[in-house]
Structure formats: structure tokens, C-alpha cells
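Q: Please design a sequence for this.
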């Protein structure tokens, strides 16, 4: 097996060799119509760089953190591109970073339906029920133009004890940030604003560090 699928298959996938896990973090990346190929690459490179950051790597290893990646867009357009992977060593983190960088875009030409993305993300946590915390990391550069009520999906997350945090990628003003604050993030969650896709790499790094802050201490 070669390419990005081979790299993912070679990682420490749950439940094999599983150790106590502090945080299960599902990274949900917007790949809707508003995201062009250059912007998609900024997101994947930014995620890869964040997963290779020394401070992030230390936190992931210390917390035996579980990571999964999902690409999302329209109502029936959600793809798990990296299944749950436990980061037990620096080598695990390095392999995860490489896999994130070379993962191809799974969805094209589709709408923006964050409620359905949240619903699909919530179902993934059944596989990592033993982790102490469950977090969805939603990134997006727009408001919905398809799908069901986002606030209701957020309520589902709160009932399940899942935290939703957000990265709002802005092009003009703070409309996406405001939408995420009002409708997407849970009461225990937060939003990081990226001033365009070029600011995404720094935003995702800051966000993951904040999410794993209790591990770092």
C-alpha cells in the first residue's frame, strides 16, 4: 500500500495498542465550493505544520491523544480522511503530520452544511468512548446554504458531553466568527478567527495548543 492511505494505515489506529487517552480531537475541515484548491492546500499544510509543532507534539504524546480528520461540505458530503489515530510517540505525530499534508481533497463542488458535519462527527466518538474529553474542531469560511439547523446540532453535542470549538476563516468583517459564536460552538467552546486562509496555519496551531492546554500544564 502506497501514498497517503498507506501512511494512515501505518499509524497507531484505535483500538490496537490503545493506552489511556486524555482527549479525542476530531478535526473537521471545510472543503465546500468557497474553498479553492490553493485555499485547500493552505488548510492541509497548516494542519500538517500544527501537528508537527514541538509544543503540540509534546501535548499529544503526554496525553496519548486520539486524532481524526474529517472533510465536510454539503448535506451528504462528509468523509473521514484520517480515522482515529493514537499519538503515543513523536514518530506517530510525524507520520500523522505527513499524512495530513498529502491527503487529497475528498469532496468538490458542494454546498456548506455544518449541521450535518456536526452530526456525522458526533457519531465518530462511539469508537473512542474511553477518552476523557471529546472535542470537535470545526473550521469554515462561510455560513450555511444547505442542511438542517446548526444550533440544534450543537445542542446534540452538548447533550453528549462533546465540546465544539471553531476556526472562523474570514474574508471581510466578522460574519463567520459571529455565526460560529451564536450557533456552532458549545457553551464550553471557543472560536479562533483567521483573517483569511493564509492565517489558517497559525490559527490551527494556536487552537490545538489551547485545546490541549491542560495536558501541557
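A: Design:
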Amino acid at each position: 500500500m502506497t501514498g497517503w492511505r498507506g501512511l494512515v494505515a501505518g499509524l497507531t489506529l484505535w483500538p490496537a495498542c490503545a493506552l489511556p487517552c486524555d482527549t479525542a480531537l476530531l478535526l473537521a475541515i471545510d472543503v465546500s465550493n468557497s474553498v479553492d484548491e490553493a485555499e485547500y492546500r493552505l488548510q492541509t499544510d497548516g494542519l500538517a505544520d500544527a501537528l508537527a509543532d514541538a509544543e503540540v507534539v509534546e501535548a499529544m504524546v503526554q496525553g496519548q491523544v486520539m486524532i481524526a480528520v474529517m472533510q465536510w461540505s454539503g448535506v451528504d458530503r462528509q468523509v473521514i480522511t484520517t480515522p482515529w489515530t493514537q499519538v503515543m510517540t513523536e514518530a506517530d505525530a510525524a507520520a500523522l503530520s505527513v499524512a495530513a499534508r498529502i491527503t487529497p481533497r475528498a469532496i468538490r463542488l458542494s454546498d456548506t452544511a455544518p449541521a450535518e458535519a456536526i452530526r456525522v462527527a458526533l457519531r465518530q466518538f462511539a469508537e473512542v468512548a474511553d477518552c476523557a474529553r471529546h472535542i470537535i474542531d470545526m473550521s469554515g469560511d462561510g455560513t450555511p446554504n444547505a442542511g438542517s439547523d446548526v444550533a440544534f446540532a450543537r445542542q446534540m453535542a452538548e447533550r453528549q458531553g462533546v465540546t465544539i470549538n471553531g476556526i472562523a476563516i474570514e474574508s471581510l468583517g466578522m460574519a463567520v466568527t459571529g455565526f460560529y459564536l451564536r450557533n456552532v460552538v458549545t457553551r464550553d467552546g471557543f472560536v479562533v478567527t483567521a483573517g483569511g486562509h493564509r492565517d489558517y496555519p497559525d490559527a490551527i496551531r494556536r487552537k490545538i495548543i489551547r485545546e490541549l492546554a491542560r495536558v501541557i500544564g
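Q: Thanks. Anything notable?
A: The CA atoms of residues 13 and 85 lie 4 Å apart. The mean pLDDT is 90.
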